[in-house]
């Protein structure tokens, strides 16, 4: 403990020295400035801290600099500075520019803007909580003020290549943001604009009345600034219970929309959502109480994700979706949930090339089917990801996809009892119909069928038991041109270490092969002609 405390004091002292100018002249390591290259994914707060430290150190005259060198960061060319500033949250970029008189003009020259309330401490942390009034007013007020100030003062000659704003649905601030964006769209060139609208409460804390209230607040904003929404290319809404015609009205107004995400949104319990749009490329639906989602006509839709539907019947109807290529279905199923037949569900979308099925460590909710019925729907399928299969279940049923998808090139299987997300209380599971583990029955329709295109098999959660060995052997026997088998140990998330000790004791120790001898025995047990085809990944 003493060493850790001393280390923290030394780090704090060093930080204070740098911020104060550190006049004693000790040398520091060189600090490189990123050049004009494609923007990487940078955490906004980390990006800001890096810029702040960089500016502080440049001002302090470190790295062999003299007093005549001045502020090196501010003396960089504007195009390079803008390239750096556009990689971080716009609020952080503005704070950085305030540190230098020469950089004060740069915020009005930005072409990319990202303004967000996500910097509120704890907003993305668990357990869910409510925004306090102070947090909501302070953060939204800052986002609204900066949005209005920058968009109204910047040069209209500079195209806005991307404008992304995440804000809380608070009346006055939301109205300011929407009106500012509408004015920018009317007076400047905006290539892409995005709203992420969150509510004062998380869904877990919302009553039905809250959901209705949030939807009414959104409708008021939408009605007051239709031109702002008409110019959006991306929209994400959370925690709203709309009227029957509200979502169709949103879609008809947002004519440029390419991406739509609805999280815990619906039009009432057991409602039916019908979706038609000429430009939509990607649709994500998280939860909600829809009985059925009907995708009537979406000629440009390419990617679709449906996470945890509410219906006990087929959750979706696919109409005219000629370009749908990536489909992701995620479901924590209970005993009453219907097992889906892919031959019926995908009857109108044979264009799917990438299929992701996530079972959340619970019931397997797809049925193995005859290849003659299923092959017309899976004829273009090239990548399949079967995620979070429950541990201990026979994996042989996964072969039905291999039988029915002649173009399949890559198969990835993840076996994981993810205790962080599973319901572990036995009484709770029994009361709400959670299933005990049960194998899915499958028998090959052609014992000697050969698959010529599968090249790669990846398994996460591999253990040295007969279940995995049988499955891999079965794949190898039928996939005659397979060139790579990658085997990983169980996945571990950041919260797994915080599990209750009682739950931890329920987890069987890993039996992933660690030694060369163990791995050699497994490879030989598979009967492969070449050992190089099997890779044990860390």
Automatic annotation (TrEMBL):
| Segments for region (Disordered) | 1-48
Q: Which SUPFAM superfamilies match?
A: F-box domain (SSF81383), RNI-like (SSF52047)
Domain F-box residue range list: 70-117
Q: InterPro entries this protein is in? A: F-box-like_dom_sf (IPR036047), F-box_dom (IPR001810), F-box_plant (IPR044997), LRR_At1g61320_AtMIF1 (IPR055357), LRR_dom_sf (IPR032675)
| Entry protein name | F-box domain-containing protein
Organism annotation: Aegilops tauschii subsp. strangulata
